[in-house]
Fold:
Amino acid sequence: MKIAYITAHAPFGRGETFVLEEMLAVAELGADLLIVPRNPPKEVFHDPGRQLLDRTVWLPLFSAGICLAFLKAVILKPRLWKVLTNIFRHSRTPKILVKNLAIAPKAALIADLLRQAKVQHIHAHWGSTTATMAWIASELTGIPWSMTLHRWDIAEDNLLRLKVKRAAFVRCISEDGRREVLRIVGDQYQHKVKVLHMGVRLPDTPPAQLRPPRPAFVVACPANLVRKKGHRYLIEACALLRERDVHNLKCLIIGDGPLDEELRQRSKALGLNDVVQFLGRLSHRELIQMYGRGEVDVVVLPSIVTENGEKEGIPVALMEAMAYGIPVISTETGGIPELLGGGAGLLVPPGSSQALAEAIVKIMRDGSLRTQLARSGKAKVETDFNLKLNTEKLLELMKGTCSR
Structure:
């Protein structure tokens, strides 16, 4: 089966590691992939991205050739007029309208590319402009399409009702996300909107069972430095633990983003330079190697719901740690309880540095709890968030559209 994936940047750039892993898993299951990133940079940061380069078409978002092809399509393809009319009619804000119109020329161009390549199904990650590209390409070619919705892209509601209506199926990564989608588009689409979790690769070899000798208990927070990840509460929790004479603690902030300087200053102001270390963004391989060597004792993701309603789906960062038998702590936001419920991890209220501090010290001092969380978390991932099993289910959904 030949499948086209439309991504934001992957396999290029530093993000979308979970999309990279899924596409690689789809290819390993025998599917013939063609990957079209929306506006790709030139950099390839992650190893799985390098493995997918020979399946990828690098095209800029704008070029003279793309604009010329679009003008030709406007003249020769009446179907494109209907698409553009729907974009003008249903884009609910001027910003969304501009975003959709900006990707329309490239979408019209890749429609011909996908037809010539004999693609049988188009799949987009994110319900925003990547899904708009997939929808346009499908409308111009008749190739069935689908999309994976995550979190912010649901709240944005970029032609969501129209896209759900026209897609062969819609995949949400959490039950919470599915409920939010149906609130927007209506219960008449219940049969089409499905829950299929993202997944992670299970370790090829058993992870290290014993931590290597070291003087400190290591907490890691692998997450982009953005507001919804709640890093400030973890930093403040470290300060509270120091006040309680907990000195054998090391906190690794792994990631980069717009809050980098603000968080560094917060840590410095609290006198935590010897406790909190900012490692910047590590490659996916480097992070997984840390887990495999047993260099992290607990992974903490102190996520919050931001003032504008932004929140988590089900973070892959937690799944990866759990797959390696590392206990995790996170908050009761978004789809996280779906992952950590039933004792697979510790859940605390969002925005509470005190609750985070108590959870960390509890895991530090209770070896039996660490063992229980490690086993329960690993079992949860193996059963419900297994990349291979979930990719097989996704591929079956895509194959089911080919008989339409």
